[in-house]
Write the structure tokens for this entry.
Amino acid sequence: MDYVRVAGTGDVAEGRIVPIEAGGRKLLLARVGGAFYAAQHKCPHLGFNLCRGSLDGAAVVCPLHKAKFDLATGVIERDPKLLFLSMKAKSDLAVYPVRVEGEDVFVGV
């Protein structure tokens, strides 16, 4: 596994999600409680951009249908729901290891 520098620690404010690219993959980078998390940027249910979502603790919430994924493990915490229609998520979220060295943030791909 190669670690790729994706940002500086000052590039991501606490409680924020930013789009990044590592190893040719479009990902999201989130900062929660001082920790950094990297994951695929598209929701595994309908492919909506999770960078436009919100954080609920260390979980990302899809802005389209409110599916909720743990950023540390990728496990779905809440299945999608659109208006009154409940759905089943197709898969968990792909997550990637993050390493911080000084002021640099690296993602393993």
The chain has a mean pLDDT of 93. The longest strand covers residues 25-32. The radius of gyration is 14 Å. DSSP finds no helices and 13 strands in the chain.
